[in-house]
Structures are given as C-alpha cells and as structure tokens.
Amino acid sequence: MDHLRDQDALKIEARAARPTLPAAYYKAAIPLLALLWGFNWPAVKIVLSEISPWAFRASAMSLGGAVLAGVALMRGDSLAVRRDHWARLIGAGFLSIAAFNILLTFAQLSGPTSRAAIVTFTMPIWTVIFARLLLGEKFDRRQCLGLALGAGGLVALGWPLLRSGELTTGVLLSLVAGIYWALGTIVSKRFPVAAPPLTIATWQILVGAACAIGGMIAFEGVPVPHALQAATIMAFLYHVLLSQALAYLLWFAILARVPAGTASLGTLMVPPVGVYGAMLLLGEQPTMADFIGLILVIGAAASVLLPARGSRAS
C-alpha cells in the first residue's frame, strides 16, 4: 500500500509541476525555439574563433545556468529537487546538455557549420524511433509523413558530403551528438523530474557546466583572460542568454506537454535556419541539393506542427 501511495504521490507531483496552458501554445513555441537554436550555429562558430572549446562551453553553460537560477529566484520559484530524482536529472542533463554541446563544439571545429547542423539533426529521427521502442508512442499518419520528409531532406542536404566521401571526425561527432540528444529526450520523458521546467532547465545546464569545467581543467587548464572582438562578445551573449537560457527553458516546457516525437520532429526547422544563418553570417554557400533538402525539412516540420483536421488543442 505504501508503494502505491508513493506512486500516486509522484504522479500528482509531476502533474502539478507541469504547465497549465493548452498543448497548442507549446506547439506554437517550437518555431521560436528553432530560430533561437538555428542562429546559434553561426554564433558558436564565431565564438570559437577566439575562445578555446572547453573554456567556451564551461563559461557559457555556467553563465546560462546562473541566469536561469537568478530568474527562478526573482520569480520566487524553488530550485529544490526531490532526492530520489537527482539521478534522473543528472542522467538527462549529461546526455542532452553536456555531451550534446561538447561534441558539437568539436564537430564545428572540424568542418563547416552547415554540415554539422545537417548531420546533427538526424536527432529528431532517432527520437521518434526511440520513442516508439522505449516509450510506446505510436506513429500517426502525420508523424510518418514528417519522418519520411525529414529523412529525405537530411539525405538531400548531406548528398554532397556523401558524394565527395568527406566522412570526417566532425561528421561522426555530429551524428553521435544527435543520438545523445535523442536519448536524453527519451530519459526526460520516461523518467520525469517532479519540478517546474525552469528548475529542470537550470540544473541540467549546470550539470553540463560541471562536465565542461572538468574537461577544461583536464585538457586546457585555467584560461587566461584576453580581449575579444565585438562580434565575438555579441555572439557569446546571444549563445548564453537566448540559445542556452531562454531556449532550454522553452524546450523543457514544450517537452512537458508535447509527445517526444512531435517535439523533436518540430525542431527539424533548426537545420534550415542554421544553414541560412551560416550563409548570411559566415559566407557559406548552399548548393542546389541544400535547397531541396531545406524544402523537405520545412515540410516535415509543418506536417507535425499543423493541427489535424477537426482536432482540438488539448
């Protein structure tokens, strides 16, 4: 009986920790999230031109976590987490925050930003597959269509890479990063933490910061402060305030109300934004295959985000 009461209490706490707005509001926030994360790709490339990779991730995630903690305290929210939920929080934080961000940093140092964005965003496909295998989420027709269009779009975007045989370390790191993100998403859905999205986002980013600080000390040592160009400073602030603090807060709020497969397929809009951002800010030039892939990827996102005919927001 006590075990059943504990399970009931956990369900009540989890429901209380979730947002109360209809799920349609969170689906509508997915395009904003795609913009924030899409333009983060060229921003990170700009920052890495002057800041070493481990120092960048350590400082960015530390500041991002501190910003979210400050917001929580100003709102009067508690940052407390149940003792038996810390393992869940740390595990998901390691997969979807620490490993994902650190791997992508080195992936961008190994090749073009647009290429890293394209390969990494096999992650929605992995998430949908893992959600089916591990969470029992069924494919509906729109998800099947989105999965097919997304896979076709990613193949089209990566076709020049496959044709030229440029299977570099950066490509492998990007692919593994996408798989880690998908697994972190599944862990968050399978083992939810009974806490508000702001609390979860704060601690998971700080988990990533702790991992990055450990890597920095082990591989780079304590960084020596030096002057930075204005563009680097602006890109760093964008990364910390918008693509880390705000975007992760949105992501955990969305994940609490939207199925894992739907949320991740919606983020397929990130690669088009990342590719165009790289073209605009870094001077990279997409090919015709890139444009075909972008159209397919946008179609994949639209097939998930547009409401089904006759359906109502939950």
How many helical stretches?
Answer: 14
Strand-and-helix sequence, N→C?
HHHHHHHHHHHHHH
Mean pLDDT: 81
**Shape type:** globular
> Roughly how many Å is the radius of gyration?
19 Å
State the distance separating the first and last CA atoms.
33 Å
Flag low-confidence runs: 1-19
Structure description:
By secondary structure, the protein is an all-alpha fold. The chain has one domain. It has 14 helices and no strands. The protein has helices at residues 2-17, 23-38, 40-48, 53-75, 86-109, 113-120, 123-135, 141-164, 169-190, 197-219, 230-257, 260-266, 270-282, 288-305. Helix 3 (40-48) crosses helix 13 (270-282), helix 5 (86-109) packs across helix 10 (197-219) and helix 10 crosses helix 11. The longest helix is centred in the C-terminal third of the chain and has 28 residues, at 230-257.
Notable traits:
314 residues, mainly alpha, 14 helices
What is the element layout, followed by pairings?
Blueprint: H1 2-17, H2 23-38, H3 40-48, H4 53-75, H5 86-109, H6 113-120, H7 123-135, H8 141-164, H9 169-190, H10 197-219, H11 230-257, H12 260-266, H13 270-282, H14 288-305
Helix pairs in contact: 2-11, 2-13, 3-11, 3-13, 4-10, 4-11, 5-9, 5-10, 6-9, 6-13, 7-9, 7-12, 8-14, 10-11
